[in-house]
Specification:
heterodimer, A: 156 residues, B: 618 residues, eight-stranded antiparallel β-sheet, 14 helices, 24% helix
């Protein structure tokens, strides 16, 4: 994966909206795949607008302040909110869920309009599983008998 | 041990057709077919296996293709690893919808003629549904074999527990069952004095322990009798730690993944939490492990992509003279070639829907008229709640323990028995969790970042799903038929299923719901169960809502008995009407009690194999 300022901005944005750190986001090996996927679906102009909106927010010191501004300017934006929510879901479970039809009517159709997994690795690298101290079904098995132990849910 | 799969060339069709020296043709490569083929081959017999599906997963690489296909599906239902094959279609729950009164829905492979729509499935791949199954292997209770005599319900088997106890042991060896015998002695279930299972029981999950702390030693009262409850591990055909005391101290060597080359995985379960629909490492038994041994003898041939379409009978003798089979070249094309395959003896092991489908499509209803009738499956009622504490849900095998104290008892005179599974994989079966939880938290809950991460932990890690596996007794009106109106691309008639959940089972379901509420109260768990009237499995019973799900434990369409006028096969699964024809599988079971059917099906396959070998040697 070759890095670029745009990709680094996408990783920083992804880290903020998933509550995983940038190292964990890079560690999935999927940041560039996802950025390409999103560009292909909604057009690079929309992705750029999302990243541009996040740039000043990223400089804020407190997580609470960043969250407030994200609510107002990204998740609460008619154009950017549905895309941001789709990106959260993509990182957590590896599935791109189609954007609402109202979004597509207002801002143009997306290249695909079905739920899909961009690459089999997307499911395996879903962040939902480490978030709950578990593993994706069918992959990254924790070992015989590990299920007997109390759950070890990582703090963040 | 890592059995190598020999990869002979696909048999030449012309040569097969002129080959008159097979001792047996076995239709179907699932558990029953595999056991019979292997037993015959080990006894020196020549066998041809006819399998409707491609042999993709016969190699490790092919098996892994299924796993990658599974990863790549956005909706991971219980058939998601297995690609669409119209020529030998696999039923899929996603194809179903609720029926209007008297409506028939033929848009799914199984034509649903109602009134109840079952989402029961089976898998048409090499190895059959053993690739997909969960691999719970409880034995039937001794009382399950004589429910008519003891409870005035269902039908008695022509054989008893004591007649198949040794075959249960053989099946447990072949399938590699992990369990501790002291955990499995309950109700009237008994084991030979020195018996131990091949491998030690799989450890219970942390979730099991949380449930046990809340309910162990508490009681319920039913028809004036009290039943003590206990969370108990299930026996599983899944590799664990071999028991050195097995086989009089000889121990046990698990069978790991099968491959065409050396590969060293699957010797022990790793906790992938994905037993259904596919175990990534093959720690779970599937019939490919038995077939690998059969192929090693050099006496077993496999004809894949070959759908048996007609059993040909000599009218004078009633004997089978051949199996007409349609061989297709590719799953994407309906082009096929018809061949007639011959052997001394024929074994149909195509499952409890496909076996009667083939017989009925061949015009063979049996003198009893019972081919296709008495279709059974367990009726599942799901109950789901949030535990008060984090339980680490989504870890372990799909299910490690459950509550089995109400599998038997005098209440069976009035209502169905059940076994309860504690699902380690959360609410997925009931609600599509955790993806549905995620979508709700993000789209409706407006959660992201830290709030989302906390909410996901709170929502998923406390999930408890209790799946009640409710007994269904045989009823002649629950049946599989065929109708020339409904055909598949190979011009084979598709199965038409008519099913109603019997009153006896619904009484069990009503009690199951009450029982679940009692357990949730004892655990301090928040009940989130709701049954949706628009769901295809919705049933209103005595004014209350239920959703009944299929259990994929298909049975009973060619039931065994001691009288040819009231059964299709004898106690050896030999057809009463055609003396060189055996119909093997759970379809022969007259009742299914509260045991997942595969272990019993495997046990009676050993019984049939002995009879077949004796007949061939005669």
């Amino acid at each position: 994966m070759t890095s670029s300022p745009r990709l680094e901005n996408f990783v920083a944005f992804s880290a903020q909206i998933t509550a995983f750190n940038k190292v964990e986001i890079w560690g999935t090996g999927l940041a560039d795949v996802y950025l390409d996927t999103i560009d292909g679906l909604v057009g690079a102009a929309v992705t750029d607008a999302l990243l541009d909106a996040f740039a000043p927010i990223a400089t804020l010191r407190s997580d609470a302040a960043r969250t407030d501004r994200l609510r107002l300017e990204v998740f609460g934006s008619e154009r950017l909110g549905p895309v941001a929510r789709a990106i959260v879901k993509l990182w957590y479970i590896g599935v791109w869920y189609p954007l609402p039809s109202t979004w597509q009517e207002q801002f143009g159709p997306t290249a695909r309009n079905d739920a899909f997994v961009p690459t089999p690795a997307a499911f395996v690298e879903g962040l939902l599983w480490p978030a709950i101290g578990s593993h994706p079904p069918g992959a990254k098995a924790p070992g015989y008998g590990s299920w007997r132990l109390p759950p070890n849910i990582p703090s963040f | 041990m890592s059995p190598f799969v020999k990869n002979p060339n696909r048999p030449d069709l012309a040569a097969l057709q002129s080959d008159s020296d097979y001792d047996a043709i076995v239709v179907g490569s699932g558990i029953s077919g595999a056991i019979i083929a292997n037993e015959l081959a080990q006894a020196g017999k020549r066998v041809l296996i006819v399998e409707a599906a491609p042999e993709t997963d016969r190699t490790y690489e092919g098996y892994t293709e299924y796993l990658n296909h599974f990863y790549g599906q956005s909706a991971k239902d219980n058939q998601s690893p297995f690609p669409i094959n119209p020529n030998a279609a696999t039923p899929r729950g996603s194809e179903l919808r609720k029926l209007d009164p008297l409506e028939t829905n033929s848009s799914s492979y199984i034509v649903q003629s109602g009134p109840y729509v079952s989402d029961t499935v089976y898998t048409r791949v090499f190895g059959g549904t053993s690739i997909h199954w969960e691999a719970k292997t409880p034995r039937m209770l001794p009382q399950d074999f004589k429910t008519q005599t003891v409870f005035g319900q269902g039908r008695d088997w022509p054989i008893g527990y004591e007649d198949i106890e040794t075959d249960y042991e053989t099946a447990e060896r072949e399938m590699g069952v992990s369990a501790d015998v002291e955990d499995q002695k309950y109700l009237d279930l008994k084991f030979r004095d020195s018996y131990v299972f091949p491998m030690r029981g799989l450890p219970p999950s942390w979730l099991d322990e949380q449930v046990a702390q809340g309910i162990d030693n508490s009681q319920v009262e039913l028809y004036g009798e009290r039943y003590a409850l206990k969370v108990r591990p299930f026996p599983q055909a899944r590799n664990g730690i071999p028991n050195p005391a097995y086989d009089g101290g000889k121990g046990f060597e698990p069978t790991s993944a099968v491959a065409s080359h050396q590969i060293d995985i699957g010797g022990r379960c790793q906790g992938n939490t994905n037993c259904v629909p596919i175990c990534p490492v093959q720690a779970k038994y599937h019939s490919g492990k038995t077939l690998a041994k059969a192929f090693e003898t050099g006496r077993v041939d496999l004809l894949s992509q070959a759908v048996a379409s007609k059993v040909i009978i000599d009218d004078a003798s009633g004997r089978v003279t051949g199996i007409e089979t349609k061989v297709y070249h590719h799953v994407s094309s309906p082009a096929y070639k018809t061949v007639t395959l011959r052997a001394r003896l024929y074994v149909i092991a195509a499952n409890a829907i496909e076996t009667p489908r083939l017989l009925l499509a061949s015009g063979l209803r049996s003198k009893s008229g019972l081919v296709g009738r008495n279709l059974m499956d367990h009726a599942y009622l799901l109950n789901w709640a949030l535990m008060p504490q984090i339980c680490g849900t989504t870890r372990g095998t799909s299910c490690t323990s459950g509550i089995v104290d109400l599998r038997g008892g005098s209440f069976r005179r009035s209502q169905a028995a059940f076994a309860v599974d504690i699902h380690n994989d959360g609410w997925g079966w009931a609600t599509g969790s955790p993806s549905t939880d995620l979508v709700e938290l993000v789209d409706d809950g407006n959660k992201f970042g830290r709030d989302l991460r906390n909410a996901i932990i709170d929502r998923v890690s406390r999930q408890l799903l209790l799946a009640f596996m409710i007994e269904v007794m045989p009823s002649e009106s629950n049946r599989v038929t065929v109708d020339p109106t409904y055909k598949d691309p190979l011009d084979n008639m598709r199965p038409v299923v008519s099913f109603a959940v019997p009153e006896y089972s619904m009484r069990g379901a009503a009690y199951a719901r009450q029982f679940a509420k009692t357990l949730f109260a004892r655990l301090g768990a928040e009940d989130h169960t709701h049954y949706d009237p628009s769901n295809y499995g919705f049933i209103a019973y005595q004014g209350d809502p239920y959703e009944i799900r299929g259990g994929n434990h298909l049975a009973g369409t060619h039931i065994m008995g001691s009288d040819p006028s009231t059964s299709v096969v004898d106690a050896d699964q030999r057809s009463w009407d055609h003396d060189n024809l055996y119909l093997v599988g759970a379809g022969s079971m007259p009742t299914i009690g509260t045991a997942n059917v595969s272990l019993t099906m495997a046990a009676i396959a050993y019984r049939s194999a002995r009879k077949i070998i004796a007949t061939l040697n005669h």
